[in-house]
Amino acid sequence: MKWSEISIHTTQEAVEPISNILHESGASGVVIEDPHDLVKERDTSFGEIYQLNPDDYPTEGVIVKAYLSVTSFLGETVDEIKEAINGLLLYDIDLGHNKITISEVNEEEWATAWKKYYKPVKISERVTIIPTWEEYDTVSTDEIIVELDPGMAFGTGTHPTTVMCIQALEKTIRPGAHVVDVGTGSGVLSIAAAKLGAEHVEAMDLDEVAVNSARLNSKLNKEQDRISVRQNNLLDHIKGPYDVIVANILAEIILRFDQDAFNVLKPNGKFITSGIIRGKKDEVKQSLIKSGFIIEETLLMEDWVAFIASKPQQNPLQTGE
Predict the structure, then answer these.
(1) What is the CATH number of domain 121-310?
(2) What residues does CATH 3.40.50.150 cover in the chain?
(3) pTM of the model
(4) 306 near 251, Cβ under 8 Å?
(5) Is the domain covering 3-117 a CATH 3.40.50.720 domain?
(6) Greatest extent of the chain over all pairs of C-alpha atoms, in Å
(7) To the nearest whole percent, how much of the chain has pLDDT over 90?
(8) How far is it, in rounded angstroms, from Cα 70 to Cα 3?
(9) Where in the chain is the domain with CATH 3.30.70.260?
(10) Which of 94, 112, 159, 280 could form a disulfide with 251 if both were Cys (CB 3.0 to 4.6 A apart)?
(11) What pLDDT shows up at residue 30?
(12) Angle subtended at Cα 46 by Cα 42 and Cα 52, rounded to the nearest 5 degrees
């Protein structure tokens, strides 16, 4: 089978929404080439291996690559991708150069290209994420291993937004907790929550590909009995009450259902939100406060923001922080 590589030169802010567009268009595998990775300080004491070639990276911005099978409909698919990406401007997302190029690759190159960027990485005090094709030896007795094959679903667990979510889950999950993971993607947050002690996790995504991927990864980690994966739009038809809701999605989407999140949480329940670019920080924060939440902690990593918000025992009138 022949494959075409679609390459989009864009910004860090646009990486997640563009990756989702590519997956929804049938792309198999996504490669993110961010020059910040070349200078990022990394802890290699846990066995991670980083062999990055500067020639693979742009001098500015970020390049997102994906792979599409060559069919008679390829031209139409590419046009739809371009239109969807341009549509992100309606959400005030900076697209940067927004230069799109197409090239043909052989199947062997496609199958392995993105995997060379994905190695075991310790992302919190206890949680280490390893790809299924890598060998890894634990370094402590309380280390939690999440084995992951993202496949076609967005979410390798190493993006700053995911890292902050898992760090927040580690702080908030209590044994026996009931959790909802909104926009589960590859299921990495649901698996981490289960391994951190949650009794049950509802993992939901609107994308059928993500649902299938999350189910597979739940089984790989032997957590399928505690994780229920299904197709669902945000918190539609969800009643709760739940102890924790986690959502690693766009700021614009968080603004659509933060009141729903408040309504289905137990008193003192936690709402963990990420996927928020710094420029949207105050808007999301004020919306959470308006919905009744108290902001307990703000996490920052690179250009990204995450919040740990709590639902008070009683809902006081809040005027902002």
Answers:
(1) 3.40.50.150
(2) 121-310
(3) 0.67
(4) no
(5) no
(6) 60
(7) 50
(8) 5
(9) 3-117
(10) 280
(11) 78
(12) 40
